[in-house]
UniProtKB/TrEMBL annotation:
The keyword Nucleotide-binding does not apply. Gene3D superfamilies: Cytochrome P460. CDD domains: cyt_P460_Ne-like (cd20751). This is Cytochrome P460. Residues 41-177 form the Cytochrome P460 domain. Keywords: Signal. Residues 1-26 form the signal peptide. The keyword DNA repair does not apply.
Length: 198
C-alpha cells in the first residue's frame, strides 16, 4: 500500500471509530446549570412511557402517601440501552408525573379512576461522575409537587429523603422495574412491544 492509500485508510478508520464512540456514548438527556442543578426537562412526553401506578385515596384511609396516579417515562437512548443490555446506562434519566383522579364514573367502561390534571413532576438521573457517592449513582429531584410552585432548575435531594426507599424496595438498580411492564418485557431482548408473556 502506498503512503497516500495508507493515510486514507487510517483516516477513514479514525472517522469510523469516532462515529462508533459517539454511537455508544449518546449524550444524556439530563442538563445541568453551573450550580449543578438539573434543568426542567422539556420534551419528556416524547420519551418511552414505562408504567402507570394508581394508589387511590379511598384505599388509603382518605389520603394516599403518594399522589393518586403516576406515570413514569425513561429517555429513549437509555431505553434502547436497557433493551439491549438489561441495564441502566450512565446518563439515564427518568421522569415521573403526578396526576390527580379526575372522575370515577366511566362512560360505559365501568367505574374507576380516570386521569384528572397533571399536578407534579419528579425526576432521577444516574451519573457516576456527578454522583459518585449516591447509591447506584442516582440523584433525585422534585420540580413540583402539589402545593409547591414549578422550579426550572432543581437541587439534588438528600439521599434519606428519596434514594433510601428506592434502594430498599426497587427491583433493579434503584428503579421500580417490578411496576414497569414495558421495561420488564424489553429487558435485554432487543425487542419492544412484546405483548404476550413468554
Ligand atoms: C416510600 C418509598 C419512596 C420514597 C421515599 C420515594 N420514592 Fe420514588 N418511587 C417509589 C415507588 C413505589 C415508585 C414506583 C412508581 C410509583 O408508584 O410512583 C417510585 C418511582 C420514582 C421515579 C420513577 C423511576 C423509578 O425509580 O422507578 C422517580 C423519578 C421517583 N420515584 C422520584 C422520587 C423522588 C424525587 C423522591 C424524593 C422526593 C422519591 N422518589 C422518594 C417509592 C418511593
Amino acid at each position: 500500500m502506498n503512503f497516500k492509500k495508507q493515510l486514507v485508510s487510517s483516516l477513514s478508520g479514525l472517522v469510523f471509530s469516532a462515529v462508533m464512540v459517539s454511537g455508544t456514548l449518546a449524550a444524556s438527556m439530563a442538563e445541568f446549570n453551573d450550580k449543578g442543578e438539573l434543568l426542567l426537562p422539556k420534551n419528556y412526553r416524547e420519551w418511552v412511557m414505562v408504567g402507570t401506578q394508581v394508589t387511590p385515596d379511598e384505599l388509603n384511609d382518605g389520603k394516599a402517601p403518594f399522589t393518586e396516579i403516576r406515570t413514569v417515562y425513561i429517555d429513549p437512548e437509555s431505553y434502547a440501552h436497557w433493551k439491549k443490555t438489561g441495564e441502566f446506562r450512565d446518563g439515564a434519566m427518568t421522569v415521573k408525573e403526578l396526576i390527580s383522579v379526575g372522575g370515577r364514573k366511566g362512560p360505559g367502561s365501568g367505574n374507576g379512576y380516570f386521569m384528572g390534571d397533571y399536578i407534579g413532576l419528579e425526576a432521577s438521573v444516574k451519573d457516576s461522575k456527578r454522583f459518585p457517592d449516591e447509591p447506584g449513582n442516582w440523584a433525585f429531584y422534585i420540580f413540583y409537587v402539589p402545593g409547591t410552585p414549578l422550579v426550572t432548575a432543581a437541587k439534588n435531594l438528600p439521599t434519606a429523603e428519596c434514594a433510601a426507599c428506592h434502594k430498599e424496595n426497587a427491583k433493579t438498580d434503584m428503579v421500580y422495574t417490578q411496576f414497569y411492564p414495558v421495561l420488564r418485557a424489553a429487558k435485554a431482548t432487543g425487542e419492544s412491544g412484546v405483548v404476550a408473556p413468554k
